[in-house]
Amino acid sequence: MAPAFEPRTFVNGAMLRKFNGQYVSILLRIEDEAGTNLNAVSTDKQKIRVKLQDPTGGRCGSWVEVIGKPMGSDTIDAKETILFAEDDPALDEDAYNMMVEFLNNCKDIYKSG
User: Fold this and answer.
1) Residue 99 pLDDT > 60
2) Domains identified in the chain, total number
3) pLDDT digit string (tens) for 63-98?
4) Is 81 strand, coil or helix?
5) Any idea of the CA torsion for 86, 90, 95, 101, to the nearest 10 degrees?
6) How much is the mean pLDDT over the chain?
């Protein structure tokens, strides 16, 4: 059985600084990758640097989900990465941004069921 992911909050680039030191999940489009250093752009067009444990092997333009802890407003120390298949349909970035805003502003919905 695979180990479970850490509890985390879904965010976009503008939200990173609010979650310093806490686990987050963010979708990023790869710009370039050199070993364990990844430069990417978030769904809200923020430039993000990621310190990887292992290279993703993704190409420029590929989407990757990064699970890790933000260190400041533009850097994430990744614990886990999930590379999206390159033939997946285009990601609706605006819808993702609306989803993370909703999830972070309407937490009471989950408490009341």
Assistant:
1) yes
2) 1
3) 999 999 999 999 999 999 999 877 666 889 999 999
4) strand
5) 30
6) 89
Distance CA 50, CA 27 (A): 12
Sign for the pseudo-dihedral over CA of 18, 66, 41, 74: positive
CA distance linking residue 90 with residue 52, whole number of Å: 24
The residues facing 68 across adjacent strands are 24, 78
Q: Does residue 4 fall inside a structural domain?
A: no
Percent of the chain as helix, strand, coil, to the nearest 5: 20, 35, 40
Q: Residue 25 belongs to what domain range?
A: 9-112
What is the spatial distance between Cα 18 and Cα 82, in angstroms, rounded to a whole number?
A: 23
108 vs 33: which has the higher pLDDT: 33
Is residue 52's pLDDT more than 60? yes
